[in-house]
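Recall the central idea of this unit: under ordinary conditions, the amino acid sequence of a chain determines the structure it adopts. In this exercise we apply that idea directly, starting from the sequence alone.
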Amino acid sequence: MPQLKVKLVITGDDFGYCDRRNRGIVDCFQAGGISNVSLLVNAASAENAAELAKRHRIPIGLHANLSEGAPVCQELKTSSLLNKDGFFHGKMGFRQVLQSGQMNMAEVEAELRAQIKRFCELTGRLPSHMDGHQHVHVLPEVREVFAQVLSDFGISCTRVPVEPGLHSCTFLPPHLRDFYLQVEKDALQSVEVFHRYGIRWPDVYLGLSTMGQNMSISNLQRALSFALQARTSIAAQAGDLCGPGLCQPITVELMVHPGYPSHPLQGGCGEGPDDFSQSSDRLHELNMLRDPVLHSYYKQQGILLCAFSDL
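Accordingly, the structure predicted from this sequence is:
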């Protein structure tokens, strides 16, 4: 049996988005392709997702959503978080309103608290971890509110989307690469805030470079190789390259989006499913994640799938 080198949390994001996404995520979990899920509590199939998680004992956290669909907090029918149609501003729209200085942080806090309470209603407990849909939790100002809310509820784990090797991913389209690098910049500036509130996260984050059609066995192995290199580097910095420090596994989160493609007009968070959810990318990720070749690679490299609660 190879030495345990990596504790790998593979998180299926957007659980609850639609029934077909839910079914695909459960199939992926049962096939050993993911080990954890993040729930969108304002999504069309959130109740179904929570029930499936209970039935199949799937470790579940909260995918806090401030950018897509309708709010959970009933007091926010008119809010800086919402457009004229009563929906969140969208991935880029949220960032634009925030940058303009027009975002009310008290309303951000109210919605985050309402989503945690809704999660508790659906699952019967607090989330084991909490991150942000479309990475809104690491944005300026939001990160401070997010950290305070997590601290108040005693939720100790989050996601810091800084991916090793991202700068060398020349295969990414320029618009995606620019967005990912901005996410990384925001995430790096969140580290001090999260540390200050006692919030933790895995040693290494992966997933930006392996989304959709960019997910392949070779790309996943490439990404995981950076985690293995980071483990060696950490041990070397500790002056323990050949000692017991090297025996400690590194912790890694891989963000993924498996599922069956959404049908038009079915699912979403109040406005219907987006193009990403309706594309074949969902099924492609599902098939890659349950590929026996990848599972053999985990065993060969000493990579153990686990949940946030196992870290």
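The chain has one domain: 6-310.
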